[in-house]
């Protein structure tokens, strides 16, 4: 007779995500995971695989909440440009807010820590950034069609610039509590949309 799991895999995955997000991949040991999840090592391996596989599953869980929110924010009826502006300002505020500043963005953290030597992690980061770029590009193309973005502005180039800005905010925000730095950078970038 097969044994039933004595823990909630979804709750354990959320707990692993929290721990990896707080500490990073390298600084999180299997012992840390066992303690934080309250699940035995053998059960972690049987359910999620090794530490790297668990990390990648946690990354996938994190990504599930990102794109739908961005699509909803940038696909609302009405003018598109205010949604882009609001998104950039939200990133600036979050990057300097104490509760999220120290953790940064899990995708950005993965890029900084793993992408250079883990091809799977690099592809996942790239896929996430491609999706963000596509959402921004679509919104900016819509803004140009609506006449809110000058005809001479390239929506794809602007989307790429904003992608790099948003990811950079996440990195700088981890080390700098200065909200003026983020706000000034955001406003200077948004001025390019006029």
Automatic annotation (TrEMBL):
Key words, A-Z: DNA-binding, Transcription, Transcription regulation
Coiled-coil positions: none
Keyword Transcription regulation: yes
Ranges for domain HTH tetR-type: 6-66
Matching InterPro entries: Homeodomain-like_sf, HTH_TetR, Tet_transcr_reg_TetR-rel_C_sf, TetR_C
Entry-linked Gene3D superfamilies: Homeodomain-like, Tetracycline Repressor, domain 2
A Pfam family matched in the record: TetR_C_13
Keyword hit for Transcription: yes
DNA-binding segment(s): 29-48
Signal peptide: none
Annotated protein name in UniProt: TetR/AcrR family transcriptional regulator
């Amino acid at each position: 007779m097969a044994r039933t799991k004595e823990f909630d895999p979804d709750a354990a995955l959320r707990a692993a995500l929290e721990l990896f997000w707080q500490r990073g991949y390298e600084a999180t040991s299997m012992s840390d995971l066992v303690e934080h999840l309250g699940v035995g090592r053998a059960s972690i391996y049987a359910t999620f695989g090794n530490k790297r596989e668990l990390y990648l599953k946690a990354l996938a869980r994190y990504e599930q909440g990102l794109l739908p929110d961005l699509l909803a924010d940038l696909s609302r009826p009405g003018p598109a440009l205010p949604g882009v502006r609001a998104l950039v300002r939200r990133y600036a505020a979050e990057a300097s807010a104490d509760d999220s500043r120290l953790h940064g963005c899990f995708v950005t953290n993965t890029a900084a820590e793993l992408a250079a030597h883990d091809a799977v992690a690099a592809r996942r980061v790239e896929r996430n950034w491609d999706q963000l770029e596509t959402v921004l590009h679509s919104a900016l193309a819509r803004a140009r069609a609506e006449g809110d973005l000058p005809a001479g502005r390239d929506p794809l180039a602007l989307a790429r610039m904003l992608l790099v800005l948003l990811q950079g905010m996440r990195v700088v925000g981890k080390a700098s509590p200065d909200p003026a730095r983020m706000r000034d950078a955001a406003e200077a970038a948004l001025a390019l949309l006029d």
